[in-house]
């Protein structure tokens, strides 16, 4: 089980793809590109997978409001830089012939990344219905395979029809999208398996302020006399009532890698994050 801050930051792959494509569109393949792309990719790997980096490097501030402000500011600044580079490149080097296709592909990638970033930044309340969770897993699985097949077909078409540098650039956003979908699917697989297992383990738990639909921070005693601090985002009403009135949580599919809670006869769920754990007493 991993704390929320320790999960991979997949969105940095998307930023790397956009910046790399912008540089290639404006400057082409140069000696700077040959050095900068590997170095940038190595830095991106560190941002994605290294745990507990400074908040100013990742945008993951301690409070939700500060974190969202940092992400909005970072997205806006990067969007302006890339958009400015596109405009400068198109004005100073207007595309002709096959370059029109290259420019169209890159602008489409930038537009898609912009829409994705805006959707991720918009405030929204996640669904806590188990049926929705199962449909998300089906969608993520189908989308990953479909995008992979489409990307392969597009790469073959780019090699056969256009040639040039497009076949070298096209796999970057395709790989980012496939990896993002695969990462999303892997995050869904564990909770779905826990809820489908039919195993429910009651544990003693308590929290000071329990309100339906709001985040909850509290304490629980896992099997084996292990005391933990936990965080539950947007607790459904039935789980909130169980925790507030009976001081109890039901763990689905325990032991498991994910802290999935619900009720044996309910249709909602919540995925918890562990802040600290250790032996009781």
Q: Tell me the Rg in angstroms.
A: 23 Å
Mean pLDDT figure: 80
According to DSSP, the number of beta strands is 6
Could you estimate the helical fraction of the residues in percent?
55-70%
Stretches where pLDDT is under 50 for at least 5 consecutive residues are 1-5, 276-281
The order of strands across the largest sheet is: 1-2-3-6-5-4
Distance between the termini: 21 Å
Task: Give the count of structural domains.
Answer: 3
**Biggest β-sheet description:** 6 strands, antiparallel, barrel
Class from helix and strand fractions: alpha+beta
Oligomer class: single chain
The number of helical elements comes to 9
Following the backbone from N to C, one meets helices and strands in this order, namely HHHHHHHHEEEHEEE
Morphology call: elongated
């Amino acid at each position: 089980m991993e704390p929320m801050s320790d999960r991979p930051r997949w969105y940095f792959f998307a930023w790397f793809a956009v910046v790399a494509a912008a540089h290639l569109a404006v400057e082409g393949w140069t000696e700077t590109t040959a050095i900068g792309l590997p170095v940038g990719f190595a830095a991106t790997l560190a941002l994605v997978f290294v745990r507990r980096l400074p908040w100013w490097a990742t945008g993951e501030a301690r409070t939700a409001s500060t974190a969202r402000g940092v992400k909005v500011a970072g997205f806006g600044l990067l969007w302006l830089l890339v958009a400015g580079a596109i405009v400068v490149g198109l004005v100073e080097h207007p595309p002709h012939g096959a370059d029109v296709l290259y420019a169209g592909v890159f602008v489409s990638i930038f537009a898609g990344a912009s829409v994705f970033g805006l959707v991720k930044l918009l405030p929204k309340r996640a669904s806590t219905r188990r049926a929705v969770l199962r449909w998300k897993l089906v969608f993520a699985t189908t989308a990953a395979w479909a995008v992979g097949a489409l990307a392969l077909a597009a790469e073959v078409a780019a090699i056969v029809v256009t040639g040039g540098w497009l076949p070298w650039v096209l796999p970057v956003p395709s790989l980012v999208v496939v990896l993002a979908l695969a990462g999303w699917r892997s995050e869904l697989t564990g909770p779905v398996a826990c809820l489908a297992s039919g195993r429910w383990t009651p544990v003693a738990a308590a929290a000071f302020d329990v309100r339906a639909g709001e985040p909850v921070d509290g304490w629980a005693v896992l099997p084996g006399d292990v005391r933990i601090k936990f965080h539950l985002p947007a607790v459904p009403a039935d789980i909130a009532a169980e925790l507030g009135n009976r001081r109890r949580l039901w763990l689905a599919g325990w032991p498991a890698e994910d802290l999935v809670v619900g009720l044996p006869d309910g249709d909602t769920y919540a995925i918890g994050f562990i802040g600290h754990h250790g032996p009781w007493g």
